[in-house]
Amino acid sequence: MTVIDATKSTKDHEAAVLRELSPTPYACSSIERLSGGVMNTTYKGHLLRPLSDGATTIVIKIGEEGSAMLPGVKFSTARCVTEQAMLQHMGDQPHVVDPETHISVRSPNLYHYFSKSNTQVMEDIRDSQSLDDLLHSPVAAKMTTATAKALGESLGVWISYFHSTCQSRINAEFSEIIRRNSDDIAQRGEMTKRKSLDTAHLTEPARSYTLKEIDVGCTPEDIVLHGDFTIRNVLIKDTCLHIVDWELCRYGDRTQDICSMISQLYMSFHFHKLDTAMTMLQAFLSRYSPLTEELAYRIVLMTGMYFFWVRLYIPEPEADVAQLLRLAADLIVMGAERDRKRIAETFLGCLFTNL
């Protein structure tokens, strides 16, 4: 495709979006492309008329079945149905406010879903910044310990609340939507993990413990997860945190959400020497409850596994990556063998402070 062809294709796509919105309260005078990843096209729309809540802009997220970046690869749009259903569900729930930090946590409001085009129209959190961007900005160096702790604690309180209450608040139809998404994600995820093990140098016994975890699959203890609970998907505005990007919402082990956040914060500390990230990480863990000894050991094991998986996507110096992978193997073994003494000497020793 030439540059001219690509430009024409983009303009045609934008015109189609504007046409779909035109007969609705979300008609826009113009839209502008935002970064949206491989599987989605995302725009900010400038409304012709403000909405009843005063909004003058919206976010338009379109789930794609294919991508020019990955020719021949098809994506299931079950993720789009799941995300809009979860946003609708979260919008019906009260905001979670940490009584100690007074920081509130919620998800953006879903205004409308066009099922034929897999298009979500949702609230634009204007003047917000992702936690990822905040941590890697000059502001992070000036952030007080108290602020970093408050952010970490609020995320710990929110994910605890979500894990403990979501399952009981969804009906059978909604549960089936999540289940279909879970099956699709599990199939793709297992293939990727097994393939990465074949090309990696994960030593024994860490390799065997990792394969055992991959083989476990679904269990009766699985709960509803956010599925991509990372610093990229937390938007900060004033004293409110907004949890976004629910496409990977699925059933699974709660440690997947916990360790996803741990791994992102730790890598900010490890690769970029951000002490603020470590403060957030340990504050996050301090407010997750209920925390049992069994769960603590699983968090250690799964954190090691997450370090191992994400190495596939980190363009960092080879020596730093090698150091992280050594830690990953150690954590996998420590968690699997319940080696509390060695864990106490790591950054995850805080898990056992009150156990």
TrEMBL record:
InterPro entries: AGP_Transferase, Aminoglycoside_PTrfase, Kinase-like_dom_sf
Molecular function terms, GO-annotated: kinase activity
Organism phylogeny: Eukaryota, Fungi, Dikarya, Ascomycota, Pezizomycotina
All copies of domain Aminoglycoside phosphotransferase, residue ranges: 79-266
Protein species of origin: Aspergillus pseudonomiae
Protein name: Kinase-like domain-containing protein
A Pfam family per the record: APH
Record keywords, A-Z: Kinase, Transferase
